[in-house]
């Protein structure tokens, strides 16, 4: 039998791995686009359509 500390470490690592996977898949599918005009405007950010997904960069003018 495994000590409880090893089980807790395994569960902790598993939760972190699943969380990272969910965050990445949510980000990728958030705003599909064909051009920059398809991307919603976000205050103080510049939108770019990269590989069919809206990507946002901080605007240096703000």
UniProtKB/TrEMBL annotation:
Record field: transmembrane: 6-23
Pfam families: Nodulin_late (PF07127)
Molecular function terms, GO-annotated: metal ion binding
Name by which UniProt lists this protein: Nodule-specific cysteine-rich peptide G29
Signal peptide positions (record): none
Naturally occurring in which organism (per UniProt): Pisum sativum (Garden pea)
Listed InterPro entries: Nodulin_late_dom
Domain of life: Eukaryota
Keywords from the UniProt entry: Membrane, Transmembrane, Transmembrane helix
Domain Late nodulin: start-end pairs: 6-54
């Amino acid at each position: 039998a495994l000590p409880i500390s090893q089980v807790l470490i395994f569960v902790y690592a598993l939760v972190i791995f699943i969380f990272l996977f969910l965050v990445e898949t949510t980000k990728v599918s958030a705003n599909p686009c064909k051009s920059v005009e398809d991307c919603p405007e976000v205050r103080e950010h510049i939108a770019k359509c990269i590989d069919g997904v809206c990507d946002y960069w901080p605007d240096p003018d703000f």
